[in-house]
Write a structure and sequence with these properties.
The chain is mostly beta strands. It has two helices and 32 strands. The longest helix is centred in the N-terminal third of the chain and has 17 residues.
Length: 384
């Protein structure tokens, strides 16, 4: 009898520890306000944060997602909310407004309200791979495989299929066969291998060049890409339903940025082809006319904000995070991307530009993808 009872007790303990479980800890404190900071480094974290709504940071571990805030906190804070699914692994994560959508290794999609940490909806999708984020989770939160956004549509690829979901409700909108790399464009298309579809409906997109395509100027999760190079290496702008030929994008060292600008006539959007190498050169993507250049050899184009272009300049050991005027290339702000007396002898891994902040994963200069600059290897900064 004693032996039987001990066996049952051991089985119960084992089930509670190893059995399937979903654990949700919603937020209890007030939602952080949008911070107002001068340009400069605000902190560093050990994991890559997905900046959400300009207020919180969401991290992906192997089996758990969690949020902290405010976004300009000096280090990782106690979790505002967290969500865990055992024994599944986090495969990817994206954010649309305040909605954080997580994808798990069994294909389950779970949307979480970033403000409260409460679950908004669940849906079934194709089985996905395991956690691919290494130590920082950067690949999981900044470049998840087969998980993208296009307006109000969530795109999920896997098991030879591509499916569009309503990001607000999780309702399935459409599905089609898909074999190949996927990303979405600023014009509202989703690309699968050599094919292009309207992201909202799944209808084949007409008048597209022949793939396969190389995405250019994308946001995190390879979403909202502003340009492509086609199968012949020709560059195209993809901000509209039909792509426009852009010969400056033919060059392998060139990307495209779209900058929101405020003029006397109201808000406007301008596209710039930015090439790097011996210098940083901005051109009209349609005509190739040179607009400005800077002698920043080896610079990395991080992205754009409202009326601003962000660069990481200098070789390892002499790096600066620089904000430029997109029309003239004039420098508006420049500072070392380091906390205190930290050195800058590192190479950029992944990064995110969002809501007036930049987060950069700092890698070792030895070229090993598993070697990081330091324990708290992701540096965060406010940018104008």
């Amino acid at each position: 009898m004693v032996a039987v009872l001990c066996a049952l007790a051991a089985g119960l303990v084992g089930w509670r520890v190893l059995g399937p479980a979903e654990v949700l800890a919603p937020a209890t404190g007030a939602y952080p306000a949008v911070p107002v900071r001068p340009p400069g480094v605000t902190g560093r974290t050990a994991q890559a944060p997905l900046i959400v709504d300009g207020r919180i940071r969401v991290y992906a571990g192997k089996r758990q997602v969690r949020a902290d805030g405010p976004v300009d906190a000096k280090t990782t804070y106690t979790a505002r909310w967290s969500y865990r699914r055992w024994p599944q692994q986090v495969h990817g994560m994206v954010a649309a407004g305040t909605t954080v959508v997580t994808r798990w290794s069994d294909g389950r999609l779970v949307a979480i309200d970033g403000r409260t940490g409460r679950i908004g909806w669940r849906a079934d999708g194709p089985a996905a791979g395991g956690y691919a984020g290494h130590r920082t989770g950067a690949a999981t939160v900044w470049a998840p495989d087969g998980l993208h956004l296009a307006g109000s549509t969530l795109l999920v690829a896997g098991a030879g299929r591509l499916t569009g979901y309503d990001v607000a409700t999780g309702a399935r909108r459409w599905t089609t066969d898909c074999a190949g790399p996927t990303f979405t464009t600023a014009g509202g298309q989703v690309i699968c291998g050599a094919g292009a579809y309207q992201a909202g409906s799944g209808v084949v997109a007409l008048d597209w060049p022949r793939g396969p395509f190389t995405p250019l100027g994308c946001d995190v999760a390879r979403s909202g890409c502003r340009g492509v190079r086609d199968g012949a290496g020709a560059g195209w702008l993809t901000g509209t339903a039909v792509p426009a030929r852009a010969r400056p994008l033919d060059a392998a060292d060139t990307t495209v940025l779209t900058v929101r600008r405020t003029t006397a006539k109201g808000a406007a959007t301008s596209a710039f082809a930015i090439s790097t190498g011996d210098a940083v050169v901005a051109r009209s993507p349609l005509t190739g006319t040179e607009l400005w250049r800077r002698p920043d050899a080896g610079a990395t184009v991080l992205g754009a904000g409202p009326d601003a272009v962000y660069l990481l300049t200098g070789p390892a050991g002499a790096r600066n995070l620089v904000t430029l005027d997109p029309s003239t290339g004039a420098e508006r702000a420049s500072f070392r991307p380091a906390v205190g007396t930290e050195k800058t002898d590192w190479n950029p891994g992944g990064w995110q530009v969002a809501d007036g902040f930049v987060a950069v994963e700092r890698m070792s200069t030895d070229g090993d993808p598993d070697h990081y600059f330091t324990v708290e290897t992701v540096v965060l900064a406010a940018v104008p």
